[in-house]
Design goal:
This protein is of the alpha+beta class. The protein has 7 helices and 8 strands. The N and C termini lie far apart (101 Å). The model is unreliable at 1-14 and 215-244 (pLDDT under 50).
Length: 305
């Protein structure tokens, strides 16, 4: 009986092809088909602007204002500060206690003095005896007498690993006596306080006359955040890094203009090429910068063609 009912149903649908269209039309009649409300897809409490024609213009204006505020906030310069003096610092080398990892370490130094952070280049395969010989010029704010230094191992596929760190006091003989300090300073890390090795720093201090304002960096403020893994005794802290002002490069001198082509030069080549027009000889001489040898070669090629 089931097969008979199924065959009769298929036969009726075949005989009445408009049955499917009528069912589809009934579905459409039951659906909600009209214009979308004005608050469709809007957050709660936000009303649409008055006037249908000005809706898109108002949205575009709000988007432009938001973009302008975001752009201006990113271009905001850091506040200027007064410097008590200038510290010429050379990060020479380090002798570390242990090489962490399966391969030789690639150490680099990150140093924070006041609100500025400086980095050395990476000493690839430096392991426990890296050498940088990096010289930086630091402006020392009033009241700052120490610097914080960290040594990282540069990693390719993971965060850079903190190897050692130290807080180093600027010696009084450097600040007040004007002497040059060339000392080794102990480093702390996993091995303990002062047991991770030593680092060699060379310091020389120049006091400023009066309160010298250190200007903000030109252009946009570059910011780099230090990695924050928990390694050793304490986690590292993300700090903004302000790059040193770019040193203006001298502009290249314009190339010297070739000497002008004289009638004597044209007459000299005219004797070699009597059939050649004077204007052509002059043009070839100007194109070759007054070089008669090169002009002769070009004129020979013209005569052969």
């Amino acid at each position: 009986m089931a097969s008979v009912a199924g065959s009769s149903s298929s036969t009726s649908s075949t005989q009445n092809p408009n049955a499917g269209q009528g069912q589809h039309q009934s579905w459409r009649e039951r659906a909600f088909v009209s214009e979308l409300p004005s608050d469709f897809l809007r957050p709660d409490g936000e009303s649409a602007p008055s006037g249908a024609g000005s809706t898109q213009e108002e949205l575009d204006r709000q988007a432009a204002l938001a973009l302008a505020r975001h752009y201006n906030s990113r271009r905001q310069m850091p506040a200027t500060q007064t410097a008590a003096g200038r510290l010429n610092l050379t990060i020479a080398q380090a002798k570390l206690t242990k090489n962490y990892g399966l391969t030789r370490m690639d150490p680099y130094v990150r140093l924070r003095l006041g609100h500025c952070v400086y980095e050395t280049q990476t000493c690839y395969n430096g392991a426990t005896n890296p050498r940088w010989n990096k010289s930086v010029m630091c402006y020392v704010p009033h009241g700052v007498t120490s610097m914080h230094l960290e040594i990282y191992d540069e990693c390719s596929f993971t965060d850079d690993q903190l190897v050692a760190q130290a807080t180093i006091q600027i010696p009084d003989c450097v600040i007040t006596g004007g002497e040059t300090s060339d000392d080794w300073h102990p480093l702390s890390g996993k091995q303990g306080d002062g047991k991770e090795g030593m680092i060699n720093l060379i310091m020389n201090y120049t006091p400023m006359s009066g309160d010298m304002s250190v200007p903000a960096m030109p252009g946009q403020m570059p910011v780099m955040v230090a990695p924050q893994p928990y390694i050793g005794l304490m986690p590292t802290i993300g700090v903004p890094v302000y790059s040193a002002p770019a040193v203006p490069t001298p502009q290249a001198q314009p190339p010297a203009r070739p000497p002008p082509v004289t009638p004597e030069d044209v007459a000299q080549l005219k004797e070699m090429f009597p059939a050649m027009d004077d204007e052509i000889i002059r043009s070839v001489l100007e194109q070759r910068g007054g070089d008669k040898g090169a002009a002769t070669t070009s004129l020979l090629e013209l005569t052969e063609t």
